[in-house]
Amino acid sequence: MELDDLWPVGARLDQSGELWLGGCAASTLAEGLDTPLYVFDEATLHDRASAYREALLRHYPGVARTAYAAKAYLCLEIARIFAEEGLDLDVVSGGELFVALRAGFPAGRINFHGNNKSRAELAQAIDSGVGRIVVDNFAELKTLIELAGSRGVSRLPVWLRLSPGIQAHTHTHIQTGHLDSKFGFPIETGDAEAAVVLAMASAVLELVGLHAHIGSQIYDAGALAAAAGRIAGFAAEMGRHLGFQLQELSPGGGWGVRMTDADPAAPIELYVAAVAGAVTGACRSAGLKLPRLILEPGRSLIAQAGVALYRVGARKEISGVRTFVSVDGGIADNIRPALYGASYTAIGLRSSGNSTSPPTGAAPQKDPERIQPLERVTISGKFCESGDVLIRDIDLPRLEPGDLLAVPMAGAYTLSMASNYNMAPRPAAVLVGGGSARVIQRRERYADLVARDLTTGRRSGAFFRKYQALGNDYIVLDPVDWPEPPDEREIQRICDRHRGVGADGILWGPTARCQPFGLRLFNPDGSECETSGNGLRIFARYLWETGLSGAPAFAIASPAGVVVAHVLDQEGGSIAIEMGRLSFDSDAIPVSGPPREVIGEELIVDGRRVIINAATIGNPHCVVFLEEIAAGSWPDEARRAAHELGPHLERHPMFASRTNVQFARAVDRHTVQIEIWERGAGYTLASGTSSCAAAGIAIKTGRCESPVTVSMPGGSMLVEVDASWAVRLTGPVTTVCTGEILENS
């Protein structure tokens, strides 16, 4: 069943009552990424951008642009999508400008707004080369002239924000264009004209346009059209009196969206047609050349794309008064209902543990036995405020603890105004489309709540997670908590099993918060290594567990290259890595001497004759088969060889970058046993790349065929090798502990 225009494009309910968004099941998203969760549909974002672009082409005969008002919600991926759509961007702070530039948004397409920009923010805007700075007041005008002059800038393009004296019919908290407003130069007091005089007199500013914004969530296109006409009329007056030539005109944004079925329809076409017609008419009446028209919508571009998913918790039934149904979000992730009475609707989705009934709040089903009676409830949040109410008095079939509540039209002014009230971590945001989902903002962790805190006598520590993978344990340090990679001393201290946390190494990443997720790997002695199969699988679990990966398959970039990880179960307990291709090329490993494949070469090591085989899968490996060792004495004799010969082979002159060493025995055509001496770590219970190398050499020398189970003291891994020597490594990963690494100041 397709849903109405309160929901993202293509949103539907299937016969079992599952809600589908962007081809993804809402229940699956909630289970995998936890709740509250904000789901953004990519197709809807593109659709709304196209609607504005096409409406302007139809209704405005001059040049026109659409600029997304970033205050509605901004993150790197949203900025990237709207940049790809060719939109401009309206930012109101140095932080928004920083995010836009970090996302690669073209600076020349950014308009910098705000009523109290700091000197530092104005300098940031000038230095970044933003397209337009929108001047709001006389103090700012003076500061901007000083800054531009001190930087040797000439003809800095600016707009003036005007207060046109038009009161929008909306909530008083979101009215901005009337006389009694903190925003802009009022036209009726003469301040607007005085600002034009000052800007035109400046040797460093170029007054190219005028701007106004009368409010938000406006359904009356006439009010917006009147404001646009008022600005055009003022420009004509300034042209007659001062010789001002209007090149650009922005009547702002503020067009409303339907939040519930009770709200009026608000087609973008109606808004664009009214504003374009008003500007065209006013300019023609005044004999003005049509200016470049810039609309700055926010919520009407992004609200419909967002759906908030909550998990139902407690019920409180007050007989004859009200029934409260609480969810796991509320005022901290959506303050709009408490701040200015915003209204929402919702549907409930039964959890699998409660029933197989259709979604609560859905349209009536054809089967009368599946129709559920309605009850009037108030959806409340979990925060310690009586005003923490998301939806007051909504009729829904009975909601039980564990059910999901899906709230549409949640894309605008929710996450952008989210807080850590009651020390609540802010929710994750996920982008869906084409049946895939990708986290674009991770859920905050408790460690994030103290990241800015300082304490007397001790520097605040850094959060870590420790994982185990078949005898290998690694500590993950996220750059969010540990901004610079640890140095050699820090690595040794952390990995020390007597005085530190204890680990076989450190994983520092992700160095990029999108695919491929960058990773650096460190041995416990402080040296850096190219890759590690177990390290990669541990890092993949971290990305999955924290919601950063967004999907079960994703790319990781280590110094050895990019690999693809596959999470094989919901918990991340079994992970496969496409490790890339094994190479037996001596130059690639590297091994000294002439180019060759190092297979079956004889070495004298510590007075003993040893037959070695070498390979690389991102880092060097030397495999020695100990086939004369009987099964009964295998681990003891092989372990003795590892300790006696391993250090000599690791640092043998023929291995320019040192090498990992495996002492192996082929048990049958699909099984290999190994003992490991690891470069930079010593005797090791398990190793992913060692498993790959041992299995690959066993296949290369005819001892085994794929797939190969590699048995180690720490456990077993499955290695699959295809005809091109591409390797897939599968094995378990478990969480050991989390904590904080402290350091005395």
Largest sheet: 13 strands, mixed
| Amount of helix | 10-25%
Tell me the domain tally. Answer: 4
CATH domain fold name of the largest domain: TIM Barrel
Total count of strands: 40
Classify the secondary structure makeup into a structural class. alpha/beta
| Principal-axes shape call | elongated
At the fourth level of CATH, the homologous superfamily of the largest domain is Alanine racemase
The share of residues in extended strands comes to: 25-35%
Q: Helical segment tally?
A: 15
Structure description:
- By secondary structure, the protein is α/β, with parallel strands linked by helices.
- It has four domains: 12-41 and 305-417 and 432-441, Lyase, Ornithine Decarboxylase, Chain A, domain 1; 45-302, Alanine racemase (TIM Barrel), CATH 3.20.20.10; 457-574, Diaminopimelate Epimerase, Chain A, domain 1 (Roll), CATH 3.10.310.10; 599-724, Roll (Diaminopimelate Epimerase, Chain A, domain 1), CATH 3.10.310.10.
- The chain contains 15 helices and 40 strands.
- The strands form five sheets. Strands 25, 28, 29, 30, 31, 32, 33, 34, 35, 36, 37, 38 and 39 form a 13-stranded mixed β-sheet that branches.
- The longest helix has 22 residues, at 221-242.
- The radius of gyration is 32 Å and the shape is elongated.
